[in-house]
Amino acid sequence: MGIAGLYFRQNHGNMYEKSNVENFNLVKAVTAGFEEPYSVSVFIGRMMIFKNKNDNHIGSHRAYIGYLVSIGDYSIKDNLAHYDKWYNLEFKLKGTRDRDDRDLDWSFRVGTRIHQNTDFVNSIFIGARRSSIDYKKNAWSLVYNSAFSTVLAVSTKTFELTEAEIMLEKKWPLSWSDKVSFGLGIGYLYNSGEKYSGALKEEGVDNHQLILRPNFKW
């Protein structure tokens, strides 16, 4: 979605501006929260497998704990890419259960993001996510077919809040497939203005951003 937002603003500038409704921009709502067009990641840690002791099949009931290192050379603000060699270092705990009739994923993470471009403020963040899909339960169930995620970040220098994001997502298993679902997330992204400095801060910051995030899972 990050790349799609960059492409749309660069190649369809007039349509991008027309997507503004007062202070709401539809393109920004769909692409908000994606801070880089691409990245390379390496996980260093351990994997744990959960299975019945009488079952030789490993399956997909697993948990991961360890360090995730990600690097990139561009960061995004308002669907514009800025050259910025950055890296993330985070400690992550992630689990998944994959059955024929249900998928369950959850994760916790804490880490830091360091930027070479001083217009982006270095930060410390903490986040959590839970996602559940049950293909046998009522498709409108909020307990079995939904997702929740949240992220908080503070400046490494001042420890002031830089941003906060919360996302609620409703998922609908599709009746024509055993393992395909459609989801629509609605969230809120708060940017205190402390996330940027220099020219990026001077050009203006949207403190409040609605997030709309449609997706398919298969």
Brief characterization of the structure:
By secondary structure, the protein is mainly beta. The chain is built from four helices and eleven strands; from the N terminus they run H-H-E-E-H-E-E-E-E-E-E-E-E-H-E. The protein has a nine-stranded antiparallel beta sheet with strand order 3-4-5-6-7-8-9-10-11. A two-stranded antiparallel sheet has the order 1-2.
Tell me the major beta sheet: 9 strands, antiparallel
* Element-by-element helix/strand order: HHEEHEEEEEEEEHE
Look at the helices and sheets and give the structural class.
mainly beta
Strand ordering within the main sheet: 3-4-5-6-7-8-9-10-11
Low-confidence stretches: none
Report the C-alpha radius of gyration, rounded: 19 Å
Compute the number of structural domains.
1
Mean pLDDT: 89
Number of helices: 4
The beta-strand count equals 11
Summary tags:
218 residues, 9-stranded antiparallel beta sheet, two-stranded antiparallel sheet, 11 strands
Topology:
Elements: H1 2-11, H2 13-18, E1 20-21, E2 24-25, H3 26-31, E3 40-49, E4 62-77, E5 80-98, E6 102-115, E7 123-134, E8 146-155, E9 161-173, E10 181-191, H4 198-202, E11 208-217
Antiparallel strand pairs: 1-2, 3-4, 4-5, 5-6, 6-7, 7-8, 8-9, 9-10, 10-11
Describe this structure in words.
The protein has helices at 2-11, 13-18, 26-31, 198-202; strands at 20-21, 24-25, 40-49, 62-77, 80-98, 102-115, 123-134, 146-155, 161-173, 181-191, 208-217. The strands form 2 sheets. Strands 3-4-5-6-7-8-9-10-11 form a 9-stranded antiparallel beta sheet. Strands 1-2 form a two-stranded antiparallel sheet. The radius of gyration is 19 Å and the shape is globular. The protein contains 4 helices and 11 strands; from the N terminus they run H-H-E-E-H-E-E-E-E-E-E-E-E-H-E. The model has no long low-confidence stretch (mean pLDDT 89). It has one domain (38-217). The longest helix has 10 residues, at 2-11.
